[in-house]
User: Fold this.
Amino acid sequence: MFRLWGKIWKDNHLLKDTVYEEESEDTRTHKVFKGLEAICYELDLGVPVWLDSNIQEFQRHAKVRFHQDSFIEQIEFDFLELEVIEEG
Assistant:
């Protein structure tokens, strides 16, 4: 089971969150990309662009924050945070 937790934060408050779950034998990278798309759809957001800093942060901590510079449209929150909460 692979689980990815998506959270929207503003002023240090959690506004919305959702969890993406998948049990396929796909690669971790594909699961993360599919999870990001599903989470953004669920939260009614455009899918952010992965910057080099996002990739490095995710590889180190299995957690990443997408700020305004990763989104094409204007966002009404401080950041979208993705965190892997289960891999197996």
